[in-house]
UniProtKB/TrEMBL annotation:
This is Deoxyribodipyrimidine photo-lyase. It comes from the Bacteria. GO terms for molecular function: deoxyribodipyrimidine photo-lyase activity; DNA binding. Belongs to the DNA photolyase class-2 family. Keywords: DNA damage, DNA repair, DNA-binding, FAD, Flavoprotein, Lyase. GO terms for biological process: photoreactive repair. Gene3D superfamilies: 1.25.40.80, DNA Cyclobutane Dipyrimidine Photolyase, subunit A, domain 3, HUPs.
Amino acid sequence: MHPGRVWRHGDSRAVRGPVLYWMHREHRAHDNWALVHAIGEAKAAGAPLAVVWCLSPRFLDAAYRQFHFLLRGMRGTAETLREHGIPFFLLQGDPADEVPRFAATHGTGLVVTDFDVLRLKRAWLGQVREALACPLHEVDGRNVVPCRMASDKREYAARTLRPKIHRLLPEYLDPFPSLATEASGVAAWKAPVPDAMAAPDWDALLAAHPADRSVPALTGPDAPVPGEEGARRTLETFLTSRIHRYEKRNDPNADAVSGLSPYLHFGMMAAQRVVQRVTASTAGSADARASFIEELVVRRELADNFCLHTPDYDAVTCFPAWAQGTLDRHRDDPRPHLYDEAALEKARTADPLWNAGQTQLMRCGVIHGYMRMYWAKQLLLWTPTPEEAMRIAVRQNDRWALDGRDSNGYAGIAWSLGGVHDRPWGERPVQGTIRCMTYNGARGKFDVAAYIARMESLRGGGQARLPKSPCQRQ
């Protein structure tokens, strides 16, 4: 594994005691650089290894839908780890308390964990680091080029990060080792652990979890299948059935997108594996494959760069100075409509296209990428302040989307509402020089009426047996 992926906290003394991999972002057994590093450290020290994962009672605005998807996927990951002789232990509670407590109980010599840019995760990591009596290694398995290696500052736009990514990309596309080969020869774990940790009842955990059940789980034949196997099948289906249409990815009716965003968000598939698979494929055109990799690597990693270097990524204060200035100058402009969050959440606006996007978000757990931009931008026009527009956009996305609570979502909303990674455009009421997206502009790009009709078919319906076309995944 490339050493640039590892960020070492604490001293570098030799490991004396078990190695723990605290999994919290990369929820997979295969193609997991943090797990590979933990195995390597355990082998070098002749120490036992275990994976620990902590189920928190709440995480930002995640609801039952997201916990259902996550726990179903984690069941398979835990089984795969055990099949390869790697113990998996489930903790419950605040990770900042539970991970150090478990480490102290078992005399841990090293904790390895996932890199994450979100404030809550950075706070967890800081608290765990302070409480541990051993070193902590943070491994970036999310980004193909590790975030800290790509840039040490907030990048202005994709055009400033792109050359840095491409310069390092060949260096970091090293092949993933086989889990079976890597796990062979690790010292056995012998310390006793309670049955509830060592053999969790996943159904009981989900049934007892206090998540908000007003956001239902996605079920039925077209719902995304949680876990690593579901991610692999989705990638192969994209390569065999949809990548040839990828040039039409901004058309919500074209069924051209990958469907991988929930799996990438939950770490059920490595972006690097997707890059390697797409690069090796002859499916679709060369331009389609290159465009997909641009979105997957440069644009996605730009979002991590933004959130790492901008802790207020979900507030108006994260907007560039020109954007804050133009929005301030237009604060008192009359709005064409004013809606409260309850009306917006129920898709009760005068704009049928916006209502369709909100319906897709609520019923399908995703919103098409073009529509997510349109959806967010209209909120500036319909709320009394940019701060309220930002709050509602973040909460609705984090509450309903499987891939919410993610650097991609926060960066995308900041682009839509506040010109992050963008530039000033022509001045308009309310929005100032923030780039606008209009209903008539959408009509020039795709069949708006068809999209609205497809989403209308979902209104008032349940989650079971949703037809595939309305819930086409992003």
